[in-house]
Amino acid sequence: MTVTLFTELDLHESLLDALRDKGYERPTAIQAEAIPPAMEGRDVLGSAPTGTGKTAAYLLPVLQHLLDFPRKKSGPPRVLIVTPTRELAMQVAEQAKELAAHTHLDIATITGGVAYMNHAVVFSDNQDIVVATTGRLLQYIKEENFDCRAVETLILDEADRMLDMGFAQDVEQIAAETRWRKQTLLFSATLEGNAVKDFSERLLNDPVEIDATPSRRERKKIVQWYYRADDLAHKTALLCHLLKQTDVTKTIVFVRKRERVHELVGWLREAGINSCYLEGEMVQAKRNEAIKRMNDGRMNVLVATDVAARGLDIDDVSHVINYDLPTTADVYLHRIGRTARAGRKGSAISLVESHDHLLLGKISRYLNEPLKPRVIDTLRPETRAPSAKVTGKPSKKVLAKRKEKKEEKLDKDKPKVKVRLRDKKNIGKRRTGKTAAVATSAAPPSGKGDD
Ligand code: AMP
């Protein structure tokens, strides 16, 4: 049975109220698939990039469990959620607090970037759910400041990123420290590659596997195109023009390097466009402030690097603009996934200089659909589009040759019918319809007649 409404999910009234407050009506695909088995206590291995609703997919079952089995007296955390970045930890905790708003449950975070003593509250008070990043959590565990023995459910969010960032050992250690747990939920943007598979085989027990990678059709909700630019100044002019359009209501502008973040914020300011930014070296309070300004609508342009924007969840992003094209198609997909979240529409625009065309070809091939160029009349490029040789796009002649080769190969691959000598013998004159009919009627009616 496919679940189409949250009310079909056997959730506590207080959680349904919170869902109503948040305006969630229907579960997303990952929620519909992951919530029932997770509520039965099964381990879950979920393939779900951000934007699919994976956070609520694991939060709702654990909140329900905490409500179903309330503890008699306060104690250490019963649910531990581990994330690769501080931002993600804070966003998860924020969602957990919103979903638990009508309950008595307590949620805390343990992350780096916060004064060590500020976490004292985590240990002195009752906590039900703790959301943590690996480094600081392990530090507390080692100093015996964090008690893992009460953890019943361990959740690993964005496991692939944790592995990419070199946290595999840390996570394994956390899993060993929480060995008394009854359930493990692991979510990863992809389950491809041996690393995540190996990891999940060691940590999970007979998990239900769920794949909520957005389908091609869902991805189509993101309209994608590009503009050709002559140089940096041209790219900036294109960006300013785009940011001034009325339908461009909330935008994340991606750049490749930290230095470019600051330059670009300055150039935009000169053009009368205010923006906030995120880059890796920023202090936590400033990062939080930038995200908050975007979320509450005080600011509608955010300039960010990929590293700084990891795990970021900003509501209602109408446009993602690649001021610098990313170096891999994978990162491109990750960037554009910031828009068109939870079923809404979005646009992804790339600004492309001639040296980016090879990359553009690579991205198009990965997406399995060519990105289409557009032109702004007042900002047409003066340089010519690079030739097919540069873009890696095959010319018509090459395509025709490829087709011919393919057909030849098909012919070759056809099963060969053996022509026997006896079949060739006495073929004689080809029969016409009439002679054939005569011949048939002249022949004995069946094998039996031969006897
Ligand atoms: P996530 O994949 O957990 O990062 O969620 C992506 C976005 O979708 C977040 O902004 C959520 O608030 C939103 N969201 C999650 N579940 C739902 C739902 N069932 N209906 C509408 N929006 C949702």
Automatic annotation (TrEMBL):
<dbReference type="GO" id="GO:0000027">
    <property type="term" value="P:ribosomal large subunit assembly"/>
</dbReference>
<dbReference type="InterPro" id="IPR011545">
    <property type="entry name" value="DEAD/DEAH_box_helicase_dom"/>
</dbReference>
<protein>
    <recommendedName>
        <fullName>ATP-dependent RNA helicase SrmB</fullName>
        <ecNumber>3.6.4.13</ecNumber>
    </recommendedName>
</protein>
<feature type="compositionally biased region" description="Basic residues">
    <location>
        <begin position="394"/>
        <end position="404"/>
    </location>
</feature>
<dbReference type="GO" id="GO:0003676">
    <property type="term" value="F:nucleic acid binding"/>
</dbReference>
<feature type="domain" description="Helicase ATP-binding">
    <location>
        <begin position="35"/>
        <end position="209"/>
    </location>
</feature>
<dbReference type="InterPro" id="IPR027417">
    <property type="entry name" value="P-loop_NTPase"/>
</dbReference>
<dbReference type="InterPro" id="IPR050079">
    <property type="entry name" value="DEAD_box_RNA_helicase"/>
</dbReference>
<dbReference type="InterPro" id="IPR044742">
    <property type="entry name" value="DEAD/DEAH_RhlB"/>
</dbReference>
<feature type="compositionally biased region" description="Basic residues">
    <location>
        <begin position="417"/>
        <end position="433"/>
    </location>
</feature>
<keyword id="KW-0347">Helicase</keyword>
<dbReference type="GO" id="GO:0016887">
    <property type="term" value="F:ATP hydrolysis activity"/>
</dbReference>
<dbReference type="Pfam" id="PF00270">
    <property type="entry name" value="DEAD"/>
</dbReference>
<feature type="domain" description="Helicase C-terminal">
    <location>
        <begin position="238"/>
        <end position="387"/>
    </location>
</feature>
<comment type="function">
    <text>DEAD-box RNA helicase involved in the assembly of the 50S ribosomal subunit at low temperature. Exhibits RNA-stimulated ATP hydrolysis and RNA unwinding activity.</text>
</comment>
<feature type="domain" description="DEAD-box RNA helicase Q">
    <location>
        <begin position="4"/>
        <end position="32"/>
    </location>
</feature>
<keyword id="KW-0963">Cytoplasm</keyword>
<dbReference type="GO" id="GO:0005829">
    <property type="term" value="C:cytosol"/>
</dbReference>
<keyword id="KW-0547">Nucleotide-binding</keyword>
<feature type="compositionally biased region" description="Low complexity">
    <location>
        <begin position="435"/>
        <end position="451"/>
    </location>
</feature>
<feature type="region of interest" description="Disordered">
    <location>
        <begin position="380"/>
        <end position="451"/>
    </location>
</feature>
<comment type="subunit">
    <text>Interacts with the 50S ribosomal subunit.</text>
</comment>
<dbReference type="InterPro" id="IPR000629">
    <property type="entry name" value="RNA-helicase_DEAD-box_CS"/>
</dbReference>
<feature type="short sequence motif" description="Q motif">
    <location>
        <begin position="4"/>
        <end position="32"/>
    </location>
</feature>
<keyword id="KW-0378">Hydrolase</keyword>
<dbReference type="Pfam" id="PF00271">
    <property type="entry name" value="Helicase_C"/>
</dbReference>
<dbReference type="InterPro" id="IPR028621">
    <property type="entry name" value="DEAD_helicase_SrmB"/>
</dbReference>
<feature type="compositionally biased region" description="Basic and acidic residues">
    <location>
        <begin position="405"/>
        <end position="416"/>
    </location>
</feature>
<dbReference type="InterPro" id="IPR014014">
    <property type="entry name" value="RNA_helicase_DEAD_Q_motif"/>
</dbReference>
<dbReference type="InterPro" id="IPR014001">
    <property type="entry name" value="Helicase_ATP-bd"/>
</dbReference>
<dbReference type="GO" id="GO:0005524">
    <property type="term" value="F:ATP binding"/>
</dbReference>
<comment type="similarity">
    <text>Belongs to the DEAD box helicase family. SrmB subfamily.</text>
</comment>
<keyword id="KW-0067">ATP-binding</keyword>
<dbReference type="GO" id="GO:0003724">
    <property type="term" value="F:RNA helicase activity"/>
</dbReference>
<keyword id="KW-0690">Ribosome biogenesis</keyword>
<dbReference type="InterPro" id="IPR001650">
    <property type="entry name" value="Helicase_C-like"/>
</dbReference>
